[in-house]
UniProtKB/TrEMBL annotation:
Residues 5-210 form the Cytidylate kinase domain. The gene is cmk. Belongs to the cytidylate kinase family. Type 1 subfamily. It comes from the Bacteria. It catalyses: dCMP + ATP = dCDP + ADP; CMP + ATP = CDP + ADP. Keywords: ATP-binding, Cytoplasm, Kinase, Nucleotide-binding, Transferase. GO terms for biological process: pyrimidine nucleotide metabolic process. ATP binds at G9, P10, S11, G12, S13, G14, K15, G16, T17. InterPro entries: Cytidylate_kin, Cytidylate_kinase_dom, P-loop_NTPase. One of its GO terms (molecular function) is dCMP kinase activity. This is Cytidylate kinase.
Length: 213
């Protein structure tokens, strides 16, 4: 059995940062499932046909601090992380047929020596047998701050009250939709990292991994 760490949580909970650092540290594969939904939304917005096939030609390069998303030699990182694509990806993710289309694409990340997968339904739908299931969360204020910094680091101008509304709407929709909503599974361990540094959060999760594997 290939080991899996599934991390679910709302936007700005830090799951992206934590999952990426864990994967780099363990030398395991990394699935940013939100990115798959974002790519779908980006291709849809740009009226690209055969989206399912085109998604596999989008490349994700990353290290601990930076990332680059490339489509047909074009750097689309800023578009993919924009507020517009955040909203559109959340909207389209409510549709069952789109979730079904993206299921196998996500499953294909499960390869030796292991996988760190983050998103909304990693524990509940994609990898329900994973021994480590984490529900990562933080207060709305802290998540808003993180999102703000993330967008500013991408050189984007941000309207704080608009961002707060967008984050609230997106969280509500992602948690209340009928198909595969964000939910804490019975096996998930809740980690609230409102007052934790990235390093502290990492060591809490590494301890859980060591206990379970
Ligand atoms: O994690 P993120 O903010 O990049 O995700 C963007 C959107 O994609 C999110 O608002 C809902 C959707 N999503 C999903 O429905 N299921 C996942 N496993 C990951 C993301």
């Amino acid at each position: 059995m290939i080991p899996i760490v599934a991390i679910d949580g709302p936007s700005g909970s830090g799951k992206g940062t934590i999952a990426k650092l864990l994967a780099l540290d363990l030398g395991w594969n990394y699935l940013d499932s939100g990115l798959i939904y974002r790519c779908y939304a980006y291709l849809l917005k740009n009226k690209i046909i055969n989206i399912k096939k085109e998604i596999s030609s989008i490349k994700h390069e990353f290290d601990a601090l930076n990332e680059k998303i490339i489509y047909k030699d074009k750097d689309i990182t800023i578009d993919i992380r924009s507020a517009e694509i955040s909203m559109l990806s959340s909207e389209i993710s409510q549709q069952q047929h789109i979730r079904d289309d993206l299921f196998e694409i996500q499953k294909a990340y499960l390869k030796e020596p292991g996988l760190v997968a983050e998103g909304r339904d990693m524990s509940s739908r994609l990898f329900p047998d994973s021994k480590v299931q984490i529900f990562l969360t933080a207060s709305l204020e802290e998540r808003l701050n993180r999102r703000l910094n993330q967008l500013r680091n991408h050189g984007q101008k941000v309207n704080i009250s608009k961002l707060k509304d967008e984050l609230t709407i997106r969280d509500q929709r992602d948690s209340e939709r009928k198909v595969s909503p964000l939910t804490k599974t019975a096996n998930s361990i809740m980690v609230d990292n409102t007052n934790e540094t990235v390093e502290d959060t990492l060591s809490i999760i590494k301890k859980i991994i060591n206990e379970r594997y």
